[in-house]
Amino acid sequence: MTSISGFMANRYAALSSNAGQRQSASQTSGNAAVSSQQAVSKEAAAPAPGTLASAAMMARDKIDAGYAKLGITGTSGTTAEQWDAVGFPDLDRQMLFAVKSNAGGLFSEAEVSAAKTEFNNRISDIMDANPDDPAQGYRDVIDFYDAASDDEKATFDWVVDRSEVQKSYFVHGGREDVGMGMPVVEKLMQAWGQLSAAGGNSNDLPNMPAYHEAMMWWAQDNGGAHHVDLLT
Fold first, then answer.
1. Which residue from 33, 51, 113, 208 has the least number of CB within 10 angstroms?
2. pTM of the prediction?
3. Buried b / exposed e across 47-78, counting CB within 10 Å, b at 16+?
4. Taking the alpha carbons of 35, 39, 42, 44 in that order, is the dihedral positive or negative?
């Protein structure tokens, strides 16, 4: 696991004072100037509020605080109850996405896995709130996806998952227009139709022609094909 203390130290290292020595007036003045410069540097280096980088650092701090409180460090053997106690259910949507996507490389594989589990738990809670009306459940999950940040919506995983929820909404009798004018999502809806016609399962979705078109469109909208493996 990446240590936040080490991460912060690299960015915000401060000069340690020599408590055992007396400082002259000039030394004191010089140290004050250095401290002032460091404070400015720290403020300049800190990520802007509301950014994915800021969310990642806040999530790192919160998780480490949870570890310190429980006296543990998350591993593949950490239980669901322990992850909850660490504070994963309390992460806001952007912080959860930061962990789930390992933003900045700040999170361990176990933490990323725990974030994915927490994400799925939130979707399950939405569906469980509508046990007798799956169409409404999927409609509410669509709202959950649409409430994502721009960073999350810019990922191809979000596009694929959003299209699958939309497909499930219609399969269960939903009639509301929930496409929101997103061409890539609508192209993936075509891919789901092709999959159904071919009698395949969800694992075969990447083999559908419309899926490859959707990947091309998404890559063009997000800075080029280097963002995605077009051979999938």
1. 33
2. 0.75
3. eeeeebbbbbbbbbebbbebbeeeeebbeeeb
4. negative
